[in-house]
Amino acid sequence: MDLRDWDERYRSGDLDFAPTALVVEAVGQAPPGKALDLACGAGRNALWLAERGWTVTAVDGSPVAIDILLKRALNVEAIVADLEKAEYSIDPSSWDLITICYYLQRDLFEPAKRGVKPGGLLIAIVHITEPDEEPTYKRLKPGELETWFDGWEIVHRYEGKPRDPSHKYGVSEIVARRPAKF
Q1: 16 Rama sector, left if φ>0, alpha if ψ -120 to 50, beta otherwise
Q2: In the CATH scheme, what is the homologous superfamily, with its name and number, of domain 3-9+31-177?
């Protein structure tokens, strides 16, 4: 889907504002810090984090999604930026937490990793192909996500059926902690 399709989907009003289970599990007991929610959509994770005291910046290419987020949360910095066109720059070592949930842009992993402070977390959930399929533009092959985090502490990994009922393809989940020296 391109950004116009996403805008239309957000205009339809069929939105789930429950936070992603992995985000809740991974940071539910963590002390709040600075969080960057990339490809945030209408902000379900950004809202949940902000409600728990996190200072949140949320970025998405859909102006409709960002408008929805801003109407729900005044305490989130929400930015319209097309990540595929590199319209948002991730400052190095600036974030205690970066989330990239249900979005795959392979060239976003390295700048996101550099953006995490030493000891901070990066949470990623991507769709994966079926065993007999080749990787696609928006789906990784099973086992591929973890390869992007060589040298990081893997706090959580999972591959299989999505825990989010709005997603039908299998997923790969990872929670990785940036080492002190990277």
Answers
A1: beta
A2: Vaccinia Virus protein VP39 (3.40.50.150)
Alpha helices in 12-137 (DSSP H): 21-27, 44-51, 63-72, 109-115
Crossing angle of helices 63-72/3-11, nearest 10°?
40
Once rounded to an integer, what is the mean pLDDT over residues 99-115?
A: 96
pLDDT at 29: 85
pLDDT tens figures, 145-172: 999 999 999 999 999 988 887 778 889 9
Provide the angle, in degrees to the nearest 10, between the axes of the packed helices 63-72 and 44-51.
30
Contacts of 70 (CB under 8 A, 6+ apart): 76, 78
Q: Please report the pLDDT score of residue 13 as a whole number.
A: 64
**Segments making up each domain of the chain, as ranges:** 3-9+31-177
| Greatest CA separation for the chain | 45
Q: Which residues pair with 99 in a beta bridge?
A: 37, 123
